[in-house]
Design goal:
This protein is of the alpha+beta class. The chain has seven helices and eleven strands.
């Protein structure tokens, strides 16, 4: 496994999902927002080196989330210090599922039917709201995060016949552009619209010097993974969350 690439993608993820409360505890970044997406409400390590203070660090991370009024969440990846998952399971943290991180160069495709926004609007939120994983907390985070971005970001809508039919968001972080929040209205699925809007994101990223797309998807979302693989993305690593109710 290419740990340098893993590290670069994890850092790109941190920049792509800002949170108003962020702190460091040893190799861990601790982020807190409104309790919506795990990537803005979780702690994870950026250094796989042995950590002699790992047990007390886990205790402190849990205490931080209790203080924030959020469920403690730790993201486990190939950058974990040795023994992290064993400590978490031994202390009653629960496995909250696994996701795959895919990345690779994609063909940029300009598309005049794709609208680029500087912030989510009503149409964008309506399309994204058709995805099963959305929630009130996630919606509020998307609206409030706009002013927190330190890197270029865009919210995209694909129109057909004047109707908003697909949407996603993207970011540009050096070599990487992100593929986030991808959704197609149910009645317009299986028409290649997801591939079109991703191609437009690749074009947007290329114009800003980013040539590598990346996406993070629950391993049970086989349709999304197949789409990404078909476009040229390849699995680089996996991560999972642990929760402490």
């Amino acid at each position: 496994m290419n740990l340098a690439l893993v590290h670069a993608l994890e850092r790109a993820t941190l920049n792509a999902l800002p949170a108003p409360r962020t702190l460091f505890d040893g190799p861990f970044v601790v982020k807190a927002f409104l309790g919506g997406t795990g990537r803005a409400n979780g702690a994870w390590s950026l250094d796989p080196s042995p950590d002699p203070h790992l047990p007390e660090r886990v205790t402190r991370i849990e205490a931080h989330y209790r203080r924030f009024g959020l469920v403690p969440r730790i993201r486990s990846s190939p950058l974990d210090p040795p023994g992290l998952s064993e400590i978490l399971r031994g202390e009653g943290w629960l496995d909250d599922g696994e996701s795959v991180v895919n990345s690779g160069p994609l063909e940029p495709r300009a598309d005049s039917a794709v609208e680029f926004l500087t912030a989510p609007n009503t149409n964008w939120l309506a399309v994204i709201g058709t995805a099963a994983y959305q929630s009130a907390a996630r919606k509020a985070e998307k609206e409030q995060a706009v002013k927190l971005f330190a890197i270029p970001a865009a919210w995209m809508i694909l129109h057909e016949g004047g109707v908003p039919v697909a949407a996603m968001s993207t970011t540009c972080d050096c070599a990487f552009y992100g593929i986030f929040d991808l959704a197609v209205r149910p009645e317009f699925r299986r028409r290649g619209l997801a591939a079109r809007i991703i191609g437009a994101a690749a074009h947007w990223g290329a114009a800003r010097g980013a040539g590598i797309g990346f996406a993070q998807t629950d391993v049970t979302n086989l349709a999304s993974i197949a789409l990404q693989t078909g476009l040229g993305l390849r699995e680089r690593y996996r991560y999972r969350y642990f929760l402490k109710p």
